[in-house]
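FAQ
Q: What does a multi-component entry look like?
A: The components come first, one per line:
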Amino acid sequence: MTLSEAKKRELLRQMYTIRAFEEKAEQLYAMGKIHGTMHLSIGMEASAVGSIAALRPDDLILSTHRGHGHCIAKGADLRLMMAEFMGKETGYCRGRGGSMHIADVEGGNLGANGVVGGGIPIAVGVGLSLKMQKRDQIILCFFGDGAANLGPFHEALNMAAIWKLPVVFVCENNQYAMSFSVKKAFPIERISDRAAAYGMPGVTVDGNDLMAVYEAVSQAVKRARSGEGPTLIENVTYRWRGHSKSDANRYRTREEIEAWKQKCPIKRFRARLIEEGILTEEEADRIEQEAYAAVDAAVAFAETSPEPALETIEEGVYA
Amino acid sequence: MRELSYAEAIREALRQEMQRDERVFIIGEDVGVYGGAFGVTLGLVEEFGEERVIDTPISELGIAGAITGAALTGMRPVGEIMFMDFTTLAMEQLVNQAAKIRFMFGGKAKVPFVLRTPAGSGTGAAAQHSQSLENWFVHVPGLKVVMPSTPYDAKGLLIASIRDDNPVIFIEHKLLYKVKGPVPEEPYTIPLGTAEVKREGRDLTIIATSIMVQRSLEAAQQLAEEGIEVEVIDPRTLKPLDKEPLIRSVMKTGRVLIVHEACKTGGYGGELAAVIAESEAFDYLDAPIIRLAGRDMPISYNRTLEYHTVPQVENIVQAARDLARGRM
Ligand SMILES: Cc1ncc(C[n+]2csc(CCOP(=O)(O)OP(=O)(O)O)c2C)c(N)n1
Ligand SMILES: [Mg+2]
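Then the predicted structure of the entire assembly, as tokens:
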């Protein structure tokens, strides 16, 4: 489970791309070019990238409302993503879904979800189907700390465990579900402790350490693929931005946010690669600049794309 | 009279009832410091403390169960589900338990709670944050279903709902939260099961719910300039339904247009149409009963598609004009 130097550079590029994409999306929202709501994962990039790095390209993921990073790490086309954010016909969901429902089914991303925990039971069905069809793929299901307090979480973990399904459950514990802190929402220290109740391994990792995430998820993927069943992984991280576009941050302090910004997962991985001699500062800067340029190109594509035609309004409700 | 927004009117009703009756408390996701997703409960935790304004984990079924159990044993909880779409997760406790406990127990128990939840589209939040699922609840005996369309009604109906001894589903509309209107400062109630004529007219009756009342009033204003006098009636509570004013109005005008946001098929409009068709107003109808409702499809993220998925003022004007001029 060692990563090649080229792969490590690629993972740094992915993290910069997520950061660049979300910063741009935030600007476009402020300019009124993107509407509705959106949930930014700035500060959580290592969780998305490190987890998905442990997958094969043909493996599948289920994502969340905070899913831009998952989508990009899974290899999405930034142009189709940005077009979706702008509600354009060329977007991943033909402009019908937006940020909160972005899916790249061909690329193995079975969708973000507007319902907290909505993807967790679906992971059971996907795992069951993969097993029934004797397909060698696995499904990695992302969800937040808040989702772990919904009933469906418990039903799904148990079902996946009793049937030894090829599922990896990845809980992105970013300390809050909207305003509700994990300290208030859980009577336990580690969400991964819940794995024990379902007879599966539970692992808590520093979610801002890309390599630590990669290693933990790789173990879980190996287990899932070899028929031993699911694992629950908890990536401990933090969201820098407000919950969504309607958050006044009344429930946390500026100091707390600043302290977590010091633990930036991108800076950390970059420093590590430079230390390992894989990259020079200049090369790292270039990767960063290229990421921002790729996002600009995506914006240009999205802005010149057509809106859905009104005549097509009722298309797509049924197959 | 003093003006308040719809959200402020709801907050004032909550505050006054919590001051009046210490059994009343609020429970839901982010209802405390965050003030709820739409800021409706802002400031209440500061005033009443965390014991009476309770933040919960993301556990909709748990919230429904908590208000059911608390109501069963002497409290008068007001639960909040952040978006109506997520009442789907709470259905078991609401439909099988809360709604039926009184009847099943031979009338020896009661479940006096209110479950507040915002419905409706128009915010660009797409298919899972925009639904109008009121008819799911209308179909369940034992539940009352309230849908206010103005700040005045919101306050009076909420106070009445809190004082009611039954489980009440109180459905707010996101786009109405900022709408202002006159609201008396003192507490008052609007009895559940009283419709109101919001505008009088002789040519045509529009029966509308929630935000469609506002849109119908705007349409009526425009039609008045063309010489078409529209009567607009708001049932205000879908269950129990105050049938008489609707029937009387249709007997007067001979034409009725029913307008709601929820999908047409299986929507409340079918019930309203049947109530009129079954009544003495049937003989007075000069034209078929017409329903104008949401398309039978999910709400899109794209703004234009979203806009054209549910009735807008211009659609109401068109439908009412056609009906009044006998083109339908
Ligand atoms: C079932 C459900 N309840 C409530 C909401 C409203 N909501 C959206 S995101 C969110 C918080 C989710 O917290 P968490 O799972 O920790 O994910 P995070 O937002 O922190 O990434 C809430 C309450 C929802 N979308 N779905
Ligand atoms: Mg969280």
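Q: Is there any commentary attached?
A: Sometimes. For this entry: Chain A has a mean pLDDT of 97.
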